[in-house]
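Trying the structure run again after the queue cleared.
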Amino acid sequence: MGPTNIALVELYQADQKLREAQSSLDAVSKNVRIQERKVSELSERHTLSQATLKEQQAQVAQFDLDVKTRDAKIERLRTQQQNAKNNREYQAFLVEINTEKLDKAKVEDQLLNVMASVEKLQAETRELKALLEVERKKPQAMRGEIDDRVKQLQAEVDSLRLIREAAAAAVPHKALEAFERLAERFEGEAMSALAKPDRRREEYACTACNMDLVTDVYNKLHTRDQLVFCPSCKRILYIPDDLPVELAVNKVKEKKEPRIKTSDLKAATNRQTAAEDVVKSITLEEDDSAPDQQTSG
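Done. Tokens:
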């Protein structure tokens, strides 16, 4: 791969390590955050309970004042009734007194209901306050228990963040923009390694989405310094360490020399032997005839 793709892979690996460390840090402090959220919710409930209690206590005071006002009015009407000049005036005061009594009874019923609600709210508010005091102590104790681990993980996160920043600085601007955009979209999984499912075939796939890729994708990544994206998931493709050229690209097999069968070899040997015998026999015949020719001379 070219320098841009190599730098992207280094950034991707640094980003993955940073995300893993941050995830570990978040997991360790998760219980503390849960407890803090619980305390916050309890505090809100306690505050709301106190506000509701004050409102209802104000209603009790208002209803109580209303009852006392009606009592005073009824007493005043009775005094006026006793000084009535005639029966008609007496009956008018009596009707007004009875009306005030009915209205007073309604207010008293409302007062009793609100007082019961106030009593219930007071009990709930006391319970919430006691529970809140207990729960507020837990986050501090939990932080003390995990403090060393949090410090260790935080130091690791800070160190890995510096490594990631250095790796990002080595990536060209446009390539870095593409990487950051995909990392945000896929929660850090901005790149995807090539895979060769069948070693006997020159076929490749995206390991992120298992999409089949064109056959020359390996050559593009291996010989050119350009970004190649998966056509399906749009991640940036790269060549993993476990897929070198000798495994990724199939070589043309050399033609083998034809094998000579044993039977053919034996036949050829027999033919050669027979030919040699014939030559020998001819030579012997010529040798035998040579003395006779000399005698006749």
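Residues 289-297 have pLDDT under 50 and may be disordered. Worth checking whether this holds up in the mutant runs.
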